[in-house]
Specification:
It is built from five helices and eight strands; from the N terminus they run βααβββαβαβββα. It is an alpha+beta fold. Strand 3 and strand 4 form a beta hairpin. Bound molecules: coenzyme A.
Length: 156
């Protein structure tokens, strides 16, 4: 089954209740507080994937992004919409350079061309892993070749 069509809406800093309702429905394993949501939203990094059935819009997924560092901080698809490719499409749309993810979802991101960067780290309660978009590793390699030495910014 193809993923449902969705539109993207950018959330306002006051949209905590809207984001929280999706995070609660999706049983997000880590508590996401209003300050974090507002901080992302102020940069334009609170995004909703909205699916329309007829005239009725329904929030299907939420993402928090640190826009300055191009880092995905949170991605949660409403359970009703999971397993249909919506999470993949949303990630494709966001295309962050980095993602800080729960260790349990590393395989999901790996299948979508992200690679672990460094070691997993203990977050407030769960193990987290920073992932990098695979194609950036190649870019770092090309830069190293260009400079004829190990590039100072080369990623491990
Ligand atoms: C991970 C998540 C975003 C995927 O969303 P989704 O819309 O179901 O994603 P897709 O439909 O594109 O992909 C589903 C596939 O990934 C697989 N999958 C789901 N979670 C996985 C995991 N942790 N590891 C590996 N594969 C996983 C599913 O089994 C499914 O496989 P299939 O296509 O072979 O049936 C969603 O399950 C979710 O919101 N989880 C809770 C929050 C979370 O962990 N967020 C990610 C880190 S912040």
């Amino acid at each position: 089954m193809p993923p449902p069509n969705f539109t993207i809406e950018i959330g306002a800093p006051q949209a905590y209740a809207r984001a929280k309702s999706l995070l609660n429905a999706g049983r997000h394993p880590v508590f996401i507080g209003p300050n974090m949501v507002a901080r992302s939203a102020r940069q334009g990094g609170l995004l909703f994937a909205v699916v329309r059935r007829g005239q009725i819009p329904r929030d299907a997924a939420v993402a928090l992004v640190n826009v300055r560092t191009s880092t995905l901080l949170v991605l949660n698809v409403h359970p009703h919409f999971r397993g249909a490719g919506l999470g993949s499409k949303f990630l494709e749309f966001l295309r962050p350079n980095f993602a800080r993810v729960l260790a349990t979802t590393v395989p999901w991101f790996q299948q979508r061309d992200y690679a672990p960067l460094g070691e997993p780290r203990m977050g407030r309660s769960l193990l987290t892993q920073v992932m990098v978009r695979q194609e950036l590793l190649g870019l770092a390699g090309r830069m190293a070749q260009h400079f004829g030495e190990t590039c100072p910014c080369a990623l491990p």
